[in-house]
Specification:
Length: 227
């Protein structure tokens, strides 16, 4: 009985020892794998840091180069402007100061804006002269006798003379309608007479105007119809 118990115990001991050896080997294998993984991760991280730092260095160098190029261009433009301004100031000073005649031929370029302003000024003067000539011709001519039928200019103050020749209003009578055989050259106007304002017409060839309204209400602001 003891021998059987010893054998069973020996078998379990061998099995437990083998299990422990297997477990220790697997653990060591996992530790080795983890160690290799951590080493690979550190190497990748170092490579990334190195590449990033290299890219930053290159970007910094490129930006510094672009900045230096722009600064050089700005300095060049500023230097050219300074030289041009100094040359222009020297030319102005040479022209202002009396000195010996300069034999070298200088080319003077006129500003296009000044030429354009001079042309516009000349055109404006010509236009004003033409308008004044037209006004003088229109106000100084005696009139077109063949078309208008009027000789000479209209009187400047004929209010009293016209009122003297206007037919007096008569409330009991209605003015006869005026028939215009030729309405061209006919004037229509309103006159206030005897406390009321009526319309009168003066046709070409007539000596005195004719009343066309006779109403107690005021008639004013006459206008010809289009037809």
């Amino acid at each position: 009985m003891l021998i059987r118990v010893f054998r069973v115990t020996d078998k379990f001991s061998n099995a437990g020892l083998k299990f422990a050896v297997w477990l220790a080997g697997g653990l060591l294998e996992q530790v080795t794998y983890l160690k290799e993984s951590i080493a690979s991760l550190l190497e990748a991280l170092w490579a990334a840091i190195t590449a990033l730092s290299g890219g930053l260095v290159k970007s910094t160098q490129r930006l510094s180069k672009e900045a230096s190029d722009k600064a050089a261009k700005v300095y060049q433009v500023t230097d050219e402007r300074r030289r041009a301004m100094a040359q222009r100031a020297a030319m102005i000073a040479a022209r202002a100061e009396p000195g010996p005649p300069v034999h070298a031929q200088e080319t003077v370029v006129e500003d296009p804006l000044m030429t354009q302003n001079r042309m516009l000024s000349a055109f404006t003067v010509l236009l004003m002269v033409a308008l004044i000539a037209i006004l003088l011709w229109a106000t100084g001519r005696d009139g077109d006798n063949g078309n208008s039928g009027f000789a000479g200019a209209l009187p400047q103050n004929t209010a009293n003379a016209t009122l003297d020749r206007l037919p007096s209003p008569n409330p009991s009578t209605t003015p006869a309608p005026v028939v215009f055989a030729n309405w061209q050259g006919t004037l229509v106007f309103s006159v206030r007479d005897a406390g009321q304002e009526d319309l009168f017409v003066l046709q070409r060839g007539d000596v005195s105007p004719r009343r066309i309204t006779n109403d107690p209400a005021d008639d004013r602001d006459p206008a010809w119809s289009p037809d």
